[in-house]
Design brief:
Layout: H1 8-23, H2 31-39, H3 45-52, H4 57-70
Helix pairs in contact: 1-2, 2-4
Length: 84
């Protein structure tokens, strides 16, 4: 996968997903991190499509947040890894 071939928005979403994984103390970036990063911008394409499809966006965001909380966490002897 060549990251440079992604659109600028896609690169931003992947970077944000990586940041979320770090903030949650997760060892890897999962689908939940990417979905959460796509749902974040209120004026983004993903929220617009999902709103048009009739989904409860706030409910979906809460559910993704719950799933992120359930993912395994990486800890060090001094606690969670440093946040970015």
């Amino acid at each position: 996968m060549d990251f440079n071939r992604f659109t600028e928005k896609a690169q931003d979403a992947v970077r944000e997903a990586q940041s979320k994984a770090i903030r949650y103390g997760n060892q890897q970036v999962d689908v939940e991190h990417v979905l959460a990063s796509l749902l974040e911008p209120e004026d983004g394409l993903a929220p617009a499509i999902l709103n048009k499809a009739g989904l409860n966006l706030e409910g979906l965001r809460r559910r993704v947040e719950q799933e992120l909380e359930r993912l395994p966490k990486v800890t060090t002897p001094s606690g969670p890894p440093d946040q970015v």
